[in-house]
């Protein structure tokens, strides 16, 4: 038991140092480091002195919430933290920590046990499953091929392990050797991918240790190099794509990457690379929404008498609610407020 726990902690420590060194400037990396720290608390919980187990128990209870946060930052198209799911993630570890001194983990404590222990347990399951759903739901529209193949797989592996560990701890059906073994396997898989230096696996581009430039300059140089190479490779395809979009193909209802690939006669993976590497978009829906909302914004001002619903349908949205949501995400205003403010600006210029 001690040997396996020590091995697992060693794997976690190696990965912690790699991520901190190469990706420490990224918010998603800091969340991943917190996840590793909570994993260490889980491993230590069974071997440290009993008087310290309250501390490690409170820390490892954060694992489901941290996994959910990692999925949001690493894989969601637009991370949404301040939602009911964010509140549920906080509830899953804050209430147990606050009510543990009151005996919340004792079934005889009545309401305190129910609200401070039982419900947070269900919340842990919910946030882990929602985190895994975030990975799956954003898979098809992701334009970053390395992230599609590797980051999603990593998060699913970690998610299944987190769910397994959570169920085992809450039900008591586990072996003292089983859980450290699970952590060891998952940590080795993730660490091996990071050690290989695969670009964009989980945290994005790493910054070479030997680099003498600051992070900002390095990122700009890498982006410029990739963009220059991409423009040469995808020059003819890029012209074809721009021509198609200039003709209004983005207005097609229920437009998918598959339909676009067929139209420009390219495999899906090449279409993803074309949009990502030449235009900089990381999500297909974001690319299409930008084009649609740009036209909608122009028409809202140029056609003040045209109903907003008509414009929404014309640019490719099936419902007014989906149009309003996309419009507000991109321009930070509702279509009505945008039209009013722009018309007022035009009027003031005329006066």
Low-pLDDT segments:
205-227
| Distance between the ends | 81 Å
Number of domains: 2
Indicate the overall shape.
Answer: elongated
Which secondary-structure class do the elements indicate?
Answer: mainly alpha
Q: Could you characterize the architecture of this molecule?
A:
The chain is 73% helix and 0% strand. It is an all-alpha fold and 351 residues long. It has two domains: 2-195, no CATH class; 294-351, Arc Repressor Mutant, subunit A. The protein is elongated, with a radius of gyration of 25 Å. Residues 205-227 have low confidence and may be disordered.
Secondary structure layout:
Elements: H1 2-23, H2 27-45, H3 53-60, H4 63-75, H5 84-99, H6 111-137, H7 145-171, H8 178-195, H9 215-233, H10 235-246, H11 257-264, H12 268-279, H13 284-302, H14 308-314, H15 320-331, H16 335-350
Helix pairs in contact: 1-2, 1-8, 2-3, 2-4, 4-5, 4-6, 4-7, 5-6, 6-7, 7-8, 11-12
């Amino acid at each position: 038991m001690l040997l396996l726990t020590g091995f697992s902690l060693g794997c976690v420590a190696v990965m912690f140092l790699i991520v901190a060194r190469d990706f420490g400037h990224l918010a998603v990396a800091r969340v991943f480091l917190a996840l590793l720290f909570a994993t260490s608390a889980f491993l230590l919980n069974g071997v440290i002195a009993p008087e310290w187990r309250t501390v490690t128990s409170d820390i490892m209870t954060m694992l489901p919430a941290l996994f959910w946060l990692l999925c949001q930052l690493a894989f969601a198209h637009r991370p949404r933290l301040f939602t009911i799911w964010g509140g549920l993630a906080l509830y899953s570890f804050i209430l147990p920590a606050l009510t543990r001194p009151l005996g919340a983990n004792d079934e005889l404590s009545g309401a305190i046990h129910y609200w401070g222990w039982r419900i947070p347990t269900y919340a842990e399951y919910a946030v882990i499953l929602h985190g895994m759903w975030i990975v799956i739901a954003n898979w098809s529209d992701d334009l970053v091929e390395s992230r599609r193949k590797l980051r999603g797989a990593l998060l699913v592996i970690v998610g299944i392990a987190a769910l397994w560990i959570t169920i085992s701890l809450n039900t008591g059906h586990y072996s003292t050797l089983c859980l450290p073994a699970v952590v060891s396997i998952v940590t080795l898989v993730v660490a091996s991918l990071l050690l290989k230096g695969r670009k964009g696996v989980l945290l994005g581009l790493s910054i070479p240790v030997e680099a003498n430039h600051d992070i900002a300059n390095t990122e700009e140089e890498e982006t410029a190099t990739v963009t220059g190479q991409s423009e040469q490779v995808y020059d003819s395809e890029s012209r074809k794509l721009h021509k198609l979009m200039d003709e209004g193909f983005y207005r097609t209802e229920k437009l998918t990457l598959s339909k676009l690939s067929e139209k420009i006669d390219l495999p899906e993976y090449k279409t993803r690379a074309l949009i990502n590497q030449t235009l900089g978009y990381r999500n297909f829906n974001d690319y299409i929404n930008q084009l649609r909302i740009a036209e909608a914004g122009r028409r809202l001002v140029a056609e003040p008498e045209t109903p907003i619903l008509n414009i929404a349908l014309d640019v490719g949205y099936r419902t007014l609610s989906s149009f309003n949501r996309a419009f507000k995400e991109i321009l930070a205003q509702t279509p009505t407020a945008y039209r009013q403010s722009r018309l007022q600006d035009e009027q003031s210029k005329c006066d």
